[in-house]
Specification:
With 223 residues, the protein is of the alpha/beta class. It has helices at 4-7, 17-20, 26-36, 52-63, 76-85, 98-105, 121-130, 172-183, 202-210; strands at 44-48, 68-73, 89-92, 111-116, 131-139, 162-165, 193-198, 218-222. The longest helix has 12 residues, at 52-63. The relative contact order is 0.17.
Length: 223
């Protein structure tokens, strides 16, 4: 670890490890997706995929002052937690045409910002479909292959759209900022911790998480 004296961040005595555990990775990443999109007070924001990063993006959108936040996923448990994290409306893509529903919610205008938190071609295209002219797509998902921009969802290149990407911001100052949000009850990510297991069960824990069993969102290993 280069320069550890400059990178390590002390956890305040009044906070537990679990209170701040998730801010160092997915918390910083998801919130950065909202920051990079330059969300303005009152904006309509749609988050496609409510996995851990998407849930943190919802929290980030709320911190940035979004007026309406819509969470999209196909997992009922994730949608339930999305509401806890700040989503005003949740949509199950297996039960509804989410693009059509979002256009209804915005009275045909489209969302100001759409956050792609999965890394899939379909979710990326849906982001392009639901943003208004001049809107922004914030892409934070990890793509397993090439992603393309179909011309019809890019408004023929004349939609004044903006596509931004981000990576997990780190460093002591960033962690101090996020820990302050937790300390003063502006941010809580602990509702995403659905399972706790001892280190002796680490193999089982990884299998549980990899195959998304038992409604797992985030799993903490205790030593």
């Amino acid at each position: 670890m280069p320069f550890p004296e400059f990178n390590l961040t002390k956890v305040p005595d009044e906070l537990s490890d679990e209170d701040v555990l998730l801010v160092s990775d997915i918390g910083s990443t998801g919130i950065a997706a909202a920051e990079k999109a330059d969300i303005q007070v009152g904006d309509t924001v749609v988050v496609f995929a409510c996995g851990p990063v998407g849930l943190c993006a919802i929290a980030g959108a709320r911190l940035k002052g979004a007026g309406l936040i819509v969470g999209v996923d196909g997992n009922p448990e994730r949608l339930r937690i999305a509401e806890q994290m700040g989503a005003d409306v949740v949509l199950d893509f297996r039960r509804t045409d989410v693009v059509e529903e979002i256009m209804k919610l915005t009275e045909g205008k489209g969302a100001d910002v759409a956050i792609e938190a999965l890394g899939g071609q379909m979710t990326f295209e849906n982001c392009m479909k639901v943003i208004r002219r001049g809107g922004t797509v914030s892409s934070v998902g990890i793509y397993s292959g090439h992603v393309t921009i179909p011309i019809e969802t890019f408004a023929g290149g004349m939609g004044d759209h903006r596509i931004v990407t981000t990576l997990c911001p780190g460093g002591r100052e960033r962690m101090l900022q996020l820990i302050q949000l937790v300390k003063h009850h502006r941010l809580s990510l602990s509702s995403m911790i659905t399972h706790r297991m001892p280190i002796d069960d680490a193999i089982e824990a990884y299998e549980l998480f990899e195959h998304q069993k038992d409604g797992v969102i985030k799993l903490v290993i205790h030593f």
